[in-house]
Amino acid sequence: MNTVAIIAPQYPNDIRIYKEVNTLKNIYDIHIFLTDTRKTHPHQESLDDVTVYRFKHTSSSHTIIKYARSFLRYLCITRAAIASSPRICHVHDFPLLFSGILIKLFTGSTLIYDAHEDFASMIFQNNTKKIFIFRKIELLLVKLCVDRVITVNTSLQSYFLTSGVATSVLMNVPLLSLQPEKKKRSPSRKVIIGYIGHIIPGRGYDTLPSLCNHLKNSLLFNILIVGGGPFKEGFEGLIKEQGVCEYFTITGEVPHHKIPAYLAQMDIGLVLFKPVRYNNLIATPNKLFEYMAFGIPIIASDLPEMRKIVRTTQSGLLVDPNQVTEIVESIVYLCEHPEEAREMGRNGKKAFQTTYNWDAQSGKLLRIYAEAANEKPRRNP
Questions:
Q1: In this structure, are 348 and 237 located in the same domain?
Q2: Per the count of CB atoms within 10 A, which of 156, 161, 275, 281 is most buried?
Q3: Based on the structure, what is the number of domains in the chain?
Q4: Amino acid 379: pLDDT
Q5: What is the pLDDT of residues 30-41, one digit of tens each?
Q6: How far is CA 204 from the centre of its chain?
């Protein structure tokens, strides 16, 4: 079998990378080189029928020493990947692209760049000058060194196609098996409004307390937040301060395999990303498709990529994420029109079963690899 070196931040915690590896491992000899510093032992092990390599990490309070050690660790990862003599090198996100370029230079491997998001706007927020410079550098490196690009939606595909390199969309969607039957519930029960994901700025969590103040006199409800993150404690303080704690259930961080149990409880799914940066503007979060898998009607931000999906599938309602009254009206509408809400849920589930599932997407990945394995890698600069 052809050897593949995958340079990745995390495995198996990163669900996208896990799904890709699970698709490839029966055809290719997979070696995964991890930059994750949270677990560095064992150094090498067979995990899920692939070989995983980890590297010793030592921290320092001195900035220069800290960065020097990180750089040396990065070189160790690259050297180990080179030693595996890969036919294909697959790197995830921009910080690892330089490692992929070195691996290609020394082994002649085909280089695949998997861009999960718009890294420039994620790092530099709304600093347009720095974003512009970063993108010029990224596109130049892609043009000169990368053989194939994989990304998550058509907006990012259009961006990378300007480099002249073949770019494929591989959507970050759940496995087809994520769709057990939902339990029947009593009509008198509370309406469960779901929010899945990290509690971080730009994702609309700060809108939720205001929703409670608008809904509490007209609806029996609970907002179920499945996630945690660095702003969880601050959010808990906020809802306590506003006196709406009783309307929330917050699980904190949850292993991915336990999320279906929470999805099965939800009646409405929220995806309230705010257009605070370009990365949010073009987001197609996995939670959108998880709601579809469970037949949950969606209330989503009226942003380009999500608009395209929700309108095409007719699986929910679009709102301005900055307008609390608009979100409230959409929640009330779904509660007062249960048949329409169920129809949206059915539409979403059908779209998930036919298109927006990993089983449908995985064939694209295999075709990309088959083409990459047969193509001669592009000449190094």
A1: yes
A2: 156
A3: 2
A4: 58
A5: 999 999 888 888
A6: 17
Query: What is the side-by-side order of every strand in the sheet holding 191-196?
Result: 248-250, 221-226, 191-196, 268-271, 298-301, 316-319
Which residues form the domain of 347? 191-354
CA separation (Å) from 35 to 49, 103, 222, 252? Answer: 20, 15, 39, 25
Same domain, 270 and 139: no
Note whether 141 and 204 are same-domain residues.
Answer: no
The DSSP call for residue 140 is H
- CATH code, domain carrying 131: 3.40.50.2000
Q: Helix 358-374 crosses helix 15-24 at what angle (to 10 degrees)?
A: 60
Q: pTM higher than 0.70, yes or no?
A: yes
Q: Which amino acid is at 381?
A: P
Residue 126's pLDDT is what? 83
The answer to whether residues 31 and 49 touch, using CB atoms and an 8 Å cutoff, is no
Whether 163 has a pLDDT exceeding 60, the answer reads yes
pLDDT tens digits, one per residue of 78-137: 999 999 999 999 999 999 999 999 999 999 999 999 999 999 999 998 899 999 999 999
Strand, coil or helix: 335: helix
Residue with the two structure tokens 């990529």: 305
Q: How far, CA to CA in Å, does 72 sit from each of 53, 76, 166, 169, 205?
A: 16, 6, 32, 33, 39
Q: Does residue 203 share a domain with residue 168? A: no
What is the Cα–Cα distance from 120 to 201, expressed in whole angstroms?
17
> Are 215 and 81 found together in one domain?
no
Are 17 and 119 found together in one domain? yes
**Residues 378, 146: Cα–Cα separation, whole Å:** 7
- Say which residue the tokens 């179920």 belong to: 224
